[in-house]
Design brief:
Strand order of the largest sheet: 3-2-1-4-5-7
Number of domains: 2
Number of strands: 14
Largest sheet: 6 strands, parallel
Distance between the termini: 43 Å
Shape: globular
CATH class of the largest domain: Alpha Beta
Strand content: 15-25%
Radius of gyration: 19 Å
Order of helices and strands: EHEEHEHHEEHEEEHEEHEEHEHHH
CATH topology of the largest domain: Rossmann fold
Bound molecules: 2-amino-3-ketobutyric acid
CATH architecture of the largest domain: 3-Layer(aba) Sandwich
Length: about 325
């Protein structure tokens, strides 16, 4: 049975990955680490630590006899531009620490990359698996560098490290923090709370997105895949659904009245540098990936979940 550590466990992805891993591998076998204390009942074993902190990580790995790490700690694209140096330090140094400890303790690693690893010179439509990685945000630079670091540790030391390039992840549990794709979560809260939303991207800014349940299935499926089947040790392209703010608004309006205004901010340039859609055929071929949530299903599910969470009829 796996002994798993999830770093950044209280973030948007960790908040839903931890319960999914607990359901699959047993509650006792999933240790969580975050800079915040855990909410009551979240994990059986929780460690509070601010990464990068290699010695602390080493202690946690030994203490809980960890064999698998989901290393989720990261600053996202918009926040990353506010403090590029710290973003590099946190995102890259903490990954390197985890990879070094993986060599020492023979750990299996999951590390999330992102569509942010692509840039303005990457083909924007059906972005291929093997293509130009020339990002123009520091977050993207850390993802492109991190992908190469993962592949280097696989080739040089045989570390079993696996990764996907997440699109914008849409979920109803924890809010995303400091990303460019966050509007596609925030709009659901606002339609239920106020019926109005001011969008910081233009109505026709198409971006690749994925519903959380699909993202979780992909993550666990990749980690369970036969290593012989894996041909990518940088990071797999992963696609769910692509849409523009205008398309999301019109889908939500099928359910509820919503007034939207558009006022672009600095996140527009980031969105413009990213793909419109992703070709994930290599993930489909290598480990059988298939997304299940299209725009109508994602919209209905988000509204159902948030109605319960926010206590709105
Ligand atoms: C962001 O918008 O920064 C993230 C991402 C696409 O990695 N959601």
């Amino acid at each position: 049975m796996a002994h798993i550590l999830v770093t950044g466990a209280l973030g948007q992805i960790g908040s839903e990955l931890v319960p999914a891993l607990q359901a699959q591998y047993g509650r006792e076998n999933v240790v969580t680490l975050d800079m915040k204390s855990q909410p009551a009942g979240f994990a059986a074993r929780h460690e509070v630590a601010k990464l990068p902190a290699k010695a602390v990580l080493a202690r946690v790995i030994k203490k809980h006899r960890i064999d698998t790490v989901y290393h989720l700690v990261s600053l996202l694209s918009a926040t990353g531009e506010k403090d590029p140096s710290y973003t590099w330090y946190l995102n890259v140094q903490s990954l390197k620490d985890v990879l070094d400890l993986a060599v020492e303790h023979k750990l299996k690693i999951f590390w999330p990359s992102s569509i942010a690893a692509f840039g303005p010179t990457t083909p924007h439509d059906q972005t291929p698996q093997h293509t130009v990685l020339a990002p123009t945000t520091m977050y993207g630079v850390t993802k492109a560098a991190g992908e190469l670091l993962c592949q280097y540790y696989f080739l040089k030391y045989g570390v079993d490290v696996r990764s996907v390039r997440y699109p914008g992840v849409i979920s109803a549990e924890a809010l995303p923090g400091g990303g460019t794709t966050d509007y596609a979560v925030a709009i659901f809260y606002e339609v239920l709370k106020t019926g109005q939303y001011e969008c910081y991207l233009k109505p026709d800014s198409m971006l690749p997105m994925i519903y959380m349940a699909d993202a979780m299935r992909a993550t666990i499926q990749l980690m369970e895949a036969d290593p012989q089947q894996l041909t990518i040790r940088t990071s797999y392209n992963l696609a769910g659904v692509s849409f523009t703010p205008a398309e999301l608004v019109s889908e939500i309006q099928q359910h509820l009245p919503l007034k939207v205004s558009y006022k672009s901010d600095s996140r527009q340039a980031i969105a413009d540098s990213w793909p419109n859609s992703i070709d994930d055929s290599v993930a489909r071929k290598d480990w059988g990936w298939r997304h299940e949530y299209d725009l109508p299903r994602l919209t209905t599910t988000m509204l159902e979940k948030l109605r319960v969470k926010l206590g709105v009829k």
